[in-house]
Amino acid sequence: MNDGVRNGSPKTDPLHLNILRPYQAVMSRQPVAIETEGPGFVMEVTRIFTGEDGRSHFEELEIPSTDLGPPLGEISESVTSDSAFFRSIGVEGEEDVYDYHCAPRRQFVIHLKGSVEIETGDGTKRRFGVGDVLLADDTTGEGHISRGVDTPREQVFIVVPDDLDLTKWRK
Questions:
Q1: Residue 5 belongs to what domain range?
Q2: Is the same domain home to 8 and 58?
Q3: What angle do CA 50, 108, 161 make, to 5 degrees?
């Protein structure tokens, strides 16, 4: 007998519907809130931003997720993206130094290969390598310096809207 509740009907199974919500968000390009039943994995992201002093600074963010169980794993809420692109940098030494500059737009930078040292306006230096995620958000002010450390470097950039709310991600 098919009562439409838990007999494998994907159209009515509440668990199935909840699991698909993040994927529906991606397909519809609309953010969808995921109901959280407990703490999941936290993705650590370093944000570089312009402070009141006009200089760039680092801030640590944590993007929470929800454990949807196997085979889906832990998934964060959907983040709207305007576009994405890939970059490969094959130069070394002084050729791989980008003096003070601002991020051209608000964007995630995900490091796929190599590493870079970023120096903020206050003199703080941090190294980012494979798997590290940076939110480049210093679109005004003095900017930051980027120095290639381990080359060649490969990165993916995910452009996010200016009105992306970071409130839930602050420690």
A1: 1-32
A2: no
A3: 75
Is residue 19 predicted with pLDDT exceeding 80?
Answer: no
The pLDDT of residue 21 = 54
pTM of the model: 0.76
Q: What does each C-alpha distance from 100 to 93, 130, 136, 147 come to in angstroms?
A: 17, 23, 13, 11
Token pair 């709207």 in the structure block, residue: 80
* Among candidate residues 130, 143, 117, the one with its CA nearest the CA of residue 57: 143
- Which token pair is 74? 């832990």
- Alpha-carbon gap, residue 9 to 4, rounded angstroms: 6
Cβ atoms of 137 and 49 closer than 8 Å: yes
| Alpha helix segments (H runs only) across the chain | 14-28
46 and 28 share one domain: no
pLDDT, tens digit, 9 for 90 and up, residues 48-97? 999 999 999 999 999 999 888 888 889 999 999 989 999 999 887 788 89
Domain count, the chain: 2
CA 20 to chain centre: 21
Report residue 3 as tokens. Answer: 């009562």
